[in-house]
Amino acid sequence: MKTQMEYAREGKITETMQEAAREAAIAPETLRDNIARGTAIICHNNVHLNGKPLAVGAGIRTRVNANIGTSKDDTSIDNELEKARVAVSAGADALMDLSTGGPIDEIRAAIIAETDICIGSVPLYQAACDTVMKKGKAIVDMTVDDIFAGIKKHLDDGVDFITVHCGVTRRTLEFMDREGRLLDVVSRGGSFTCAWMAHNGAENPLYEYYDRLLELVKPYDATLSLGDGFRPGCIADATDRAQIHELLLLGELTQRAWDQGIQVMIEGPGHVPLNQIEANIKLQKRICHGAPFYVLGPLVTDIAPGYDHITSAIGGAVAASAGADFLCYVTPSEHLCLPTSQDVHDGVMATRLAGHAADIVKGIPGAIERDIAISKARQALDWEKQYALALDPPLARARRGATAEVADTHGACTMCGEFCAYKIMDGRKKTSTP
């Protein structure tokens, strides 16, 4: 079976492209052409039978991913399924299962069965957990076959995109060690790989055996999400030699995947100060040939634990307006603990807000039109229409509802009451003479 990229290069529009284009509100021909170029992708594993294809990339509204998953300290499947439901209800376009505790195979299967949206994962966690929990060995004792078995297990389960840290190499690690970093490697998958290379005195298997990875992934037509194992974990480490060297490798690996008809997106930082974000996005787009860019945050300061969904939204808006295509949410619990369901909701909403702000800048059809529509409803004091157009309608309704008894006496809100500027200006229009 051919991949979507191969069909696109032949000029064909598949049913998958048509379905993805309808959801993305983009012409199927445009989506096809962008897939052929590699500037857009459709995240959809052929065996994910209950999953809907998700288009990401050029000309498409900024997408939002929500990370969920267990740890050794909280292994409840019910908790994760509730978080999945909350994320979908809040408007997430994709979920990543990052479980590392408890029955992770059952958890992943339950999450995939729970919803029809796009699912991502980090199969290296599978290999690590199987090595530690099932074999009683250390993470560094994973074999190359263990790593690839973990990837195959996730693909067989229907995961649509997999994060693989192929650019974490011995050479990149040397760049980091020579320059020095405040926080070294903060990516879990990146740290596993660095520890494995040091212990085994060998190159990263996902880089050394990249052709094997491509051969494994192609029949599923899953998307390779080339992970940024050297993403900066604090703003002091942003845009250093290790990060850029890894990006250069990812550009090379992108081309090799495209040569096999495999779709790719690139993962990006991380913690980045505001004045470096645009340069990071433009550099990625240049080095990786316009492949869709999937960024975590970026977080623009390190001092806001408990508020990092806001820190992330600030950076995400700048990143997406500069060309990032896919934003991975950050919740208020980042750097502190596993997120609650409320944290998941707040993280998705903050990231959707960042994405929408960027879509206005990008000129995505329907973005500014929604802002204009709510502005007209606001001027007309049409509360029901404002609720319907709001990012979070239940929250908007609840906020005003708490003071509705007072507010309804004058038709405005309790901020201005009878001194409402809209009412005053409306009165002026009614009393003015030609």
How is this structure best summarized?
The protein has 434 residues and is of the alpha/beta class.
Kindly describe this structure.
With 434 residues, the chain is of the alpha/beta class. The chain has two domains: 4-362, Radical SAM ThiC family, central domain (TIM Barrel), CATH 3.20.20; 367-431, no CATH class. It is built from 20 helices and ten strands. The chain has helices at 4-9, 15-24, 28-37, 77-90, 104-114, 123-134, 144-157, 170-179, 188-200, 205-208, 210-217, 241-259, 274-287, 308-321, 341-362, 367-379, 383-389, 393-401, 404-407, 421-431; strands at 40-43, 54-57, 63-68, 94-97, 118-121, 161-164, 223-226, 264-268, 293-296, 326-328. Helix 5 (104-114) links the parallel strand 4 and strand 5. The radius of gyration is 23 Å and the shape is globular. It starts with a helix and ends with a helix. The model has no long low-confidence stretch (mean pLDDT 95).
Structural class: alpha/beta
Q: How much beta, percentage-wise?
A: 5-15%
Rg, nearest Å: 23 Å
Please report the distance between the alpha carbons of the first and last residues. Answer: 72 Å
Note the overall shape. Answer: globular
How many DSSP E strands?
Answer: 10
| CATH fourth-tier homologous superfamily of the largest domain | Radical SAM ThiC family, central domain
Ranges where pLDDT stays below 50 over 5 or more residues in a row are: none
The total of helices stands at 20
Can you identify the CATH class of the largest domain?
Alpha Beta
| CATH-derived architecture of the largest domain | Alpha-Beta Barrel
Mean pLDDT: 95
Number of domains: 2
Q: Helical amount among residues, as a percent range?
A: 40-55%
